Amino acid sequence: ITVHVLNGPNLNLLGQRESTVYGSTTLVEIERLVREKAGSMGAAITFRQSNHEGHLVDWIQEAGAQGAGVVMNAGAYTHTSIALRDAIAGSGVPTVEVHLSNVHSREGFRHRSLIAPVSLGVICGFGPMSYLLGLDAVHRAMVERAKQTNP
Length: 151
Ligand code: DQA
Prior knowledge:
- Pathway: Metabolic intermediate biosynthesis; chorismate biosynthesis; chorismate from D-erythrose 4-phosphate and phosphoenolpyruvate: step 3/7.
- Catalyzes a trans-dehydration via an enolate intermediate.
- One of its GO terms (biological process) is quinate catabolic process.
- Its EC number is 4.2.1.10.
- By secondary structure, the chain is α/β, with parallel strands linked by helices.
- It has a single domain, classed as Dehydroquinase, class II (Rossmann fold), CATH 3.40.50.9100.
- The chain has five helices and five strands, in the order E-H-H-E-H-E-H-E-E-H.
- Strands 2-1-3-4-5 form a five-stranded parallel sheet, with helices on both faces.
- Helix 3 (about 55-65) runs parallel beside helix 4 (about 80-90).
- It is globular, with a radius of gyration of 14 Å.
- The chain binds 1,3,4-trihydroxy-5-OXO-cyclohexanecarboxylic acid (DQA).
- 1,3,4-trihydroxy-5-OXO-cyclohexanecarboxylic acid binds near residues 76 and 78.
């Protein structure tokens, strides 16, 4: 099982960015935690970040074409991007949406996600652990799917 962990805009600034909201862990440290957990689960990982919406669209399509799963922190694009939503829906890639912060305890404009309706589910509010829970969730869903296709 392969999982692509995709990070959207401004997540390259983690550690220095609004640390009262997002904590002090950098994206490099999150990548290390994710790789460690993936290793213990026997899953292969691709970990990427871009500030550009189109790159994220390309990577979602790539994951779909490979039969991989996606853990997606789309950052602010979560709340605005019809293109990301269409990429997930169009490629049929099993996706778990994750956020470091609890978006529901924040500003109203963060309460709506355009990608949640086409995702398997959403995990938010647990800091870097949101990624580990997301990885676990998409991995389990993919194992279940594989069992259903090849009983
Ligand atoms: C975020 C939440 C988004 O609302 C925000 O735009 C981000 C980070 C999070 O991980 O908590 O960039 O996705």
